[in-house]
Design a protein that fits this description.
45% helix, 14 helices, single chain, 9 strands, binds iron/sulfur cluster, binds 5'-deoxyadenosine, TIM Barrel, 12% strand, alpha/beta
Length: 348
Amino acid sequence: MSISDKIKNLLTKAETGGNLTREDIVALLKLPGDYSPALFAAADRVRKEQMGDEIFLRGIIEFSNYCERNCLYCGLRKSNDKLSRYRMTDDEIINTAQEIKNSRISTVVLQSGEDFFYSTGKICRLIEQIKNETDLIITLSIGERSASDFQSFQQAGANRYLLKHETASAELYKYIRPGCQLDKRMQCLHSLKHLGFETGTGNMAGLPGQTHEILADDLLVMKILDADMLGIGPFIAHPDTPFAGIENDDIEMTLRVLAIARLLTRNTNIPATTALATLHPQGRLLALQAGANVVMPDFTPEIYKIRYDIYPGRTDVGSAAEIISQLEKDFQSIGRTLLYSPGNRPGK
Ligand code: 5AD
Ligand code: SF4
């Protein structure tokens, strides 16, 4: 069989839901560049078949940029003393949730660093208040907590939880997240799944020391965990971190990981991440045509948003209103529409 026949067979296997092995995934990641359009088109067809043409929206509130951790890649790391820290007041958080509701979006993502100022009780009260006043579906993205905390959040009304595994290499994980362990992260993810949260994980592409094999393992983590949501973004070097000056990859490899994630996991919710939009003016649109079906406009008030500085250039992608109106324009050209209802994973 010729090389091109082998590649065609592999793409067909991926598109038709055949069980991709680690070797298959590595081969897809390493495909010659001229096969990218075929890979993205296959992922786009599976997205359409499994999830339809609607783009699911989630409103984000970044309510605190304090973090106890020291991840080498992230601008919120505790040792970054150039960062001006903030915590939104409860009223500001509720008002922002109300704005999300007013824009007709039905899901809010409450995101922060690992900030233990927010005790379990504080988070629960916030969840209850948002539920009472807005009835939004609540997603938490606040880092690692104990299984009993997760349970309390659920009892208070939280429905979904995002906790990216970041990298599936235990060694790389330990290096880029000092004092943290991949096993512990995975235990959190298993607890969340077990409790019945719609659970999100994900990774960064382009980390120093990352190989195609590690990226394949990232994809297998997403599949084996049966994650419901997958956040896949490019690593972007931040000048006030130990990874300052590392060259950013182009977005090609991130889009490949995203496309393979769609082919492998079929009916998951996959956002076109802000990091992709930051690295490339068409990043969001390209992702939405390579397997992604979700967009998460950021509703954090401007005064705080510029300080949620995980990587540089984030705020250039615009306000939530700008993002939504740009999306509406772009979508007319690609035959997609916006969905304001909760947008659960099918069957959830
Ligand atoms: N580049 C890209 N993504 C980053 N994140 C943190 N720092 C960076 C960076 N430099 C992402 C991580 C994490 C979330 C807080 O933001 O994936 O989950
Ligand atoms: Fe904190 Fe998350 Fe950034 Fe690590 S990646 S420093 S845990 S906000």
